[in-house]
Amino acid sequence: xxxxxxxxxxxxxxxxxxxxxxxxxxxxxxxxxxxxxxxxxxxxxxxxxxxxxxxxxxxxxxxxxxxxxxxxxxxxxxxxxxxxxxxxxxxxxxxxxxxxxxxxxxxxxxxxxxxxxxxxxxxxxxxxxxxxxxxxxxxxxxxxxxxxxxxxxxxxxxxxxxxxxxxxxxxxxxxxxxxxxxxxxxxxxxxxxxxxxxxxxxxxxxxxxxxxxxxxxxxxxxxxxxxxxxxxxxxxxxxxxxxxxxxxxxxxxxxxxxxxxxxxxxxxxxxxxxxxxxxxxxxxxxxxxxxxxxxxxxxxxxxxxxxxxxxxxxxxxxxxxxxxxxxxxxxxxxxxxxxxxxxxxxx
Length: 347
Hints:
- The protein has three domains: 25-122, Immunoglobulin-like (Sandwich); 124-210, Immunoglobulin-like (Sandwich), CATH 2.60.40.10; 219-327, Immunoglobulins (Immunoglobulin-like), CATH 2.60.40.
- The chain has five helices and 25 strands.
- The chain has helices spanning 2-18, 80-83, 281-284, 298-301, 330-346; strands spanning 19-21, 25-30, 35-37, 48-53, 56-62, 68-70, 76-78, 90-92, 101-108, 113-123, 131-135, 142-150, 155-161, 171-176, 182-189, 198-204, 212-224, 229-231, 243-249, 255-261, 266-269, 277-279, 291-293, 303-311, 314-325.
- The chain starts with a helix and ends with a helix.
């Protein structure tokens, strides 16, 4: 019995010596990002690499770096030239929720076997941007709040300033693509009884992290050519020391007017606007970014003036659609002169 016991121990030791095992590894992948599952082994010759997911073969490489590849999953790959150097790392291209699970790397060489287990977790793809705009595509005016390429789908809520007695009834749609990333589209019909209302959209993730907030106010403003005009813009209370930028569009691409940096306390105006606008830096520090438009011209300043307050996770936008009437300056003088002449003729 002692001889049999000795041989059994010897064979068991030989088995462990030729089969190389490594501790389990946990890899955390982000949705839609490439992900690497490590697998290192002692290089030799005649390598055969097999990757399993939940004990089902998902990738096979036979014959080392010049061998044949068998896979039914195009987004999985091993770089063959590295196999001869003892590296059989599996790359998951644009990983998704379907890639979660337990993987096993099994490598057979002319001298030994290697086995390694990798546990794959797929975590959130955080929100990068939240947009809010006024849309008229449905036949009526509505606020459209949108977020793209995010996981999990965030929770979207609405509010107004000031609050109204009318119940807000947004319609929110959540669609996922083949990678598991969501696009969320939430729409709220504009309340016509409150044309100067501020609409606020917030998006938050169930995984925690910072909530994103965006708000929008749209107004119509009329001015007279040659007469100074104040374009209002005030930051909501949820913004703390925001950056400010004014821009203008008369139907073409927007042009920057002036920016304000809260860290330095300095404002920078575009040379083309230097003689036409004035920003009170003292008021900006307290959230009032109103812009004074001096000596406006109908042909130059009729259009959309956009004010944007921003912080890393929040933006506030005010769109002022400005119409400068020609009745002003020289036109007024000509009109008055004509009226005087007409009166004299009648007399």
